[in-house]
Amino acid sequence: MSRKKSPFFWFILALLTTAGLTALGPQENSLGSAVRIVYLHGAWVLTAEAALGLAAATGLLGILFQRESLQRWSTALGYTGLIFWVTYLPLSLWAMQANWNGLFLAEPRFRVAVIFSVTGVLLQIGLILLAKPAFTALFNVLFFVALWIGLSRADYVMHPPPSPIFSSGVLSLQLFFVGIIFLTMTAAYFLTRWWMQKQK
Length: 200
Description:
Blueprint: H1 7-23, H2 35-64, H3 68-100, H4 108-130, H5 133-153, H6 171-199
Helix pairs in contact: 1-2, 1-6, 2-3, 2-5, 2-6, 3-4, 3-5, 3-6, 4-5
């Protein structure tokens, strides 16, 4: 397969496009140019949650209907979601430093993110060694349910619900944020396709 036909090539291209567009993003009155990292941080975590949710959905269907193809999609989506979830942590720290001039590591939702990052990585390593798509699919279902419960119970301190951008009332910011989300989800799609190829 040529480099330009590889999903990984398009994944990297989508990431570079995301980074370039984010750097040119509109500023906000109170946060100024620092709002750009908020765009990226928000889109990144939404993409992680979407991939993990799809991993759970395809995993559940794969288990119920005993379809290994769905279980493998669950595996690939789980890898993608976890990568975005883990890399969301440094983006979160960057957003804290850029906008609040400090790190609030005890922030409830950040603490939940760290716990599930460490747990997810360790369990996925074990599942890779086990090499059983059905077990990975089941883990993805349980992981997403536990993550959803953990986040729903975590207090909002530095994460105003549901989104400071969507609730801003500024259409230009909202449209730009939607564009960044589209690009990060496009990157996630190509990364998932690459993981699917690696399973063959």
